[in-house]
């Protein structure tokens, strides 16, 4: 590499450091439930999206082992060649049933599902309207699209309606796609789904809904794969329901659920699906086991336990707002302060990540606390005591 180039890389990293935006990978040496060992230290983990503790559930491990014996570990080719096993097919059937859609498509990751679909679905002369706080995978897909992109203020129905009116007038022949999350990944708040659907219907738009942090957590009892769409009985009004199997489901991979026509189209057009080796059959099998638990009495008990923990945390923090999810961020503002508090919590034995730009806006740094059904009350009490001392003193 020419030295001018290596100097450029080093300079950019130095600039990030000066702005408290340097990041580092932390190596987890061992996991046992909500305890993780990092750099030889045992920490209580309040950073994972394993909301129901399914990532270490024996049923998922056994399903993965069985599938590895039956199909091998690697899928060896893309889904459209020989990478689609019985595990993939069954998983897609079960996802479609849980989301009340005709069909489903399983991708290697949620990122691949969102970016792969949004980049190709809309064309020149169409419009994508995207919530300001939407996840990077949605932003990246929408930016790659040939459609015109407009960003509306977070959960702002008035501005969304203005943009719908504008789009209808400017592109009378075009298709309008609204893109948002049901539960926002860094704020933990919910989208006003019934109101967004009313607008979408009034203006004849389509809706793409990312339920990454809602499935397993929100939804009707025993049907929590349905997410917020299921909770409001609005699944049939949503054109594209997307999510990941790497969070509450405890496995990995992403999905897109919709009509049979939509799924058929995507498998001919979504390049992240077509030109990527299929996710391994053991991953699909583990996801199926996770979904089966979420649909069962056992899963419902876990979800209740999670909500008990969320309520307990809110009370202990003396927060009066009604929580929407298991994501309970403490806004700090300055990147430097967030890093310092995260480090102090670390020293006290808690892993709570400092979330900074570009994951959130500059000056919007926060400690992102996530709860799981597996956390004990004792652990939550300890965390609350520690954070109160650090943040409010
Ligand atoms: C995590 C996440 C994704 C990406 O899913 P992966 O399976 O992790 O790639 C997409 N959208 C949102 C809102 C997320 O939080």
Indicate the mean pLDDT. Answer: 97
From the alpha-carbon coordinates, what is the Rg to the nearest angstrom? Answer: 21 Å
Query: Major sheet: size, sense and barrel closure?
Result: 7 strands, mixed
Instruction: Give the termini separation.
Output: 49 Å
- Number of helices in the DSSP assignment: 14
Given this structure, which CATH class of the largest domain is correct? Alpha Beta
User: Can you list the strand order of the major beta sheet?
Assistant: 4-10-9-8-7-5-6
Strand coverage percent: 15-25%
The best one-word shape is globular
| CATH topology heading of the largest domain | Aspartate Aminotransferase, domain 2
- Report the strand count: 14
Task: Name the bound molecules.
Answer: pyridoxal-5'-phosphate
Please give the share of residues in helix. Answer: 40-55%
Along the chain, the helix and strand elements come as HEEEHHEHEHEHEHEHEEHHHHEHEEEH
How many structural domains can be distinguished in the coordinates? 2
Give the structural class.
alpha/beta
CATH architecture of the largest domain: 3-Layer(aba) Sandwich
Question: Would you summarize the structure shown here?
Answer:
With 393 residues, this protein is α/β, with parallel strands linked by helices. It is built from 14 helices and 14 strands. Helix content is 44%, strand content 17%.
Structure description:
The chain has 393 residues and is of the alpha/beta class. It folds into 2 domains: 19-51 and 299-391, Aspartate Aminotransferase, domain 1, CATH 3.90.1150; 58-294, Aspartate Aminotransferase, domain 2. The chain has helices spanning 3-18, 58-71, 86-99, 110-121, 136-144, 157-170, 193-202, 227-231, 260-269, 271-274, 281-294, 297-316, 335-347, 377-392, and strands at 28-32, 35-38, 41-45, 103-107, 127-131, 148-152, 176-181, 206-210, 240-244, 254-258, 327-333, 350-351, 354-355, 365-370. The chain has a 7-stranded mixed sheet with strand order 4-10-9-8-7-5-6, with helices on both faces. A 4-stranded mixed sheet has the order 1-2-3-12. Helix 4 (110-121) runs parallel beside helix 5. The longest helix is centred in the last third of the chain and has 20 residues, at 297-316. The termini are far apart. The model has no long low-confidence stretch (mean pLDDT 97). It binds pyridoxal-5'-phosphate (PLP). Pyridoxal-5'-phosphate is lined by residues 109-111, 114, 135, 137, 181, 185, 210, 212-213, 244, 246, 254. Pyridoxal-5'-phosphate (PLP) is lined by residues 109-111, 114, 135, 137, 181, 185, 210, 212-213, 244, 246, 254.
